[in-house]
Amino acid sequence: MKFAVVVNEGPYTHQASDSALNFVRAALEKGHEIFRVFFYHDGVNNGTRYTVPPQDDRNLQRLWSEIGLTKNVDLVVCIAAAQRRGILDANEAKRQGKDGDNIAPGFRISGLGQLIEAGIQADRLVVFGD
Amino acid sequence: MSASEKKKFLYINRKAPYGTIYALESLEVVLIGAAFEQDVALAFLDDGVYQLADGQATSGVGMKNFSKTYRALGDYEVRKLYVEKESLEERGLTLENLMPITYEDENEDYAEKPSIFLVGRAEIANLIAQSDVVLSF
Predict the structure, then answer these.
(1) pTM of the model as a whole
(2) Complex prediction ipTM
């Protein structure tokens, strides 16, 4: 089956990101396809490489990046939500005149159309959040 | 399902308009989603019914009053706003407390028709069951 996943909450405050990650792993292990993971609302905060959680805790950004890079999962951060919350890639940083970017490896920034497209293309869209 | 076939999108709004950003960012998805020409419906339940409350004034909390956007949804072909009857009643509200939201029916000489439909809790469950894509905010 082809799944699309939406993550609506940031890391650590809320379990949504952990649960989504576990869901994606389990789906891939069972041979399903993950069409896209879309990060919205505070979920965009999963995609900053500047998080430094304590060493005895899980590093959610790194775990997402790994799955994005090694399993070729499309990790998309919503641009409108990202701009509100200070998540930038190099292009956006330049365009907005900011002095640096913070997007994590394996993530990309794009528009809300990517969420709608995921809903249209996938067999099931699964939302993680409140 | 073929690529040309429309899917039924249901946006469920459950939170008050200004305590959190969910309502505003949900509306942003609805507006962008309208360009994809799918079959779109919105449901308002729990504190989400306050999103449609008439006479919203936000200067006191210093937030952007985006309530007018709901009234423009008809121009985006978003014409089905289901409001849960029980949620209204539990909050002491009636249809009269909500903004009059209408759309122009191009098949009937652009007559103005209401976009808001009062439905019971059981009907909301049916609505969810019949939808292909359910986004809950």
Answers:
(1) 0.94
(2) 0.91
